Amino acid sequence: MADLTLRERQIAKAYASGQSYKEIALDLGIAPSTARTHINTIYRKAGVSSKIELLRKIETAERMAQVAQPGPRRVLFVAAVAVVLTIVVAAVVTSRLRAIGPPTRALPSVAVLPLELGGGTEEQTHFVDALARDIVTDLAQFSGLAVIAANSSFRPEFENASPQQIGEALRVRYVLFGDISWNDQQVRVNMQVLETDTNRIIWAERYSPDATDLLGIRSDLATRVVGVIGPVEAANGRLRRAELARVAKLPTRDLQAYDMFLKGMVHWEKFTTEDNLLAREAFLRAVEIDPGFAKAYAMAAWTHVTDVWEGRSDNPDADLQNAARLANRALSADQNEPYAHWAMGAVYLFQREHELSIEAYKRAVELNPNGADFLVYLGWALSYRGRTDEALSYMQTAVELNPFHPGWYLWDIALAHFVAGDYQKSIDLLNERNPKTTGTYELLAFSHAMLGNDTQARDAMEHVLKVKPDLTIARVRQLEPFEHERDLNRYLDAMRKAGVPES
After folding, report:
1. How many structural domains are present in the chain?
2. What's the domain range around 37?
3. Which of 227, 90, 367 is nearest to 359 (CA)?
């Protein structure tokens, strides 16, 4: 336990004594995901795999500390010195914090807030929201910035918050915000970058383009913001110029193709059979309009992968072939499009080309260093290889970049713990997801089954079989892309224990 920091020892003791992640987070004033990340680190440092082992380790450490307790006089002397040092250090730290403001990240860090729309139609509202999200994506490609994921910075509670409050909540140095108003074909856009600890405006720009040139604003905006808040020491470097050029490149300049892509994303994110087909149609229509739209090819590939992954494909081999064809088209259109490598990583994974899959996901992360979702998918692929420590490390970074992350992160992290054999951790994470998806109940049932919690496993499976009445071990054996037979067999054994039929 000596390797643990003071905060980690505090969290470890609270968790071992029965407090939940949320209770610990509430007591310490941190996010539940941060508390969970600390627990993962504590387990690794302490070399334990369960709450009971952790409690025993703490008790043993405390007993040994009592045995090694120094005599009374030395205790008084040490305590006196400690008090003096604490006062001095506290004074220095407090003074330093006043000088530098709230703690931030090592790199220049920025959160993009939703763009405010003055009036406008429902279609324009969707467009403005997507434009702001794409600005996040553009900025995230620059390796010299730490960029908070959109679903963390686009939260309702930040609408009336001050820049300083946002800076403290998200640990960022800058916020980018603005507004857009439409007047027939004329658009007015106001953008500002504020320093969170001083409320000082460090950059502001006003645009008045034609409505047909809105995507041009996106390119110019990302380049200017990176130029303003990017690291000074790289200002004249060749790498910085290359990254600025990459950020400035638009995935498409055709508004109609962009609109079809947005419609595809709305359908794809619903993950139903019907919506997945509608998404595919929209993505393919987008590439008809703009044959060089790499990101649309990549997402069309993902619609085929989704059908395979969800177990609803009538011909998985054909779907994977189509996915591979579309992912290759994406790469041919733009080798530097992270979504193209992300799609190819998924194709390779389900083709059992595990090494190629990891390479593709790592390339996506390299091209989009702040892409929290890409980091989680990289961890997902590593979990299927049995490399769970590495997987959890990437996922922890994703959680830091996206502190208010979506629920599906929990499933991927829970899978890593399941593969590592820590079924209770898997259960704890899955129970945090509300509302629960079918996949959540599925992994929850398997985790409970491995711990012998037959009632809980059976209850969870009831939810699964209502949606997947034809679920069988034989079908899953063909589907799940585990690299090692031992991991696959353990997964299938969990299914048997949960009551899933063989065929």
Report:
1. 4
2. 6-100
3. 367
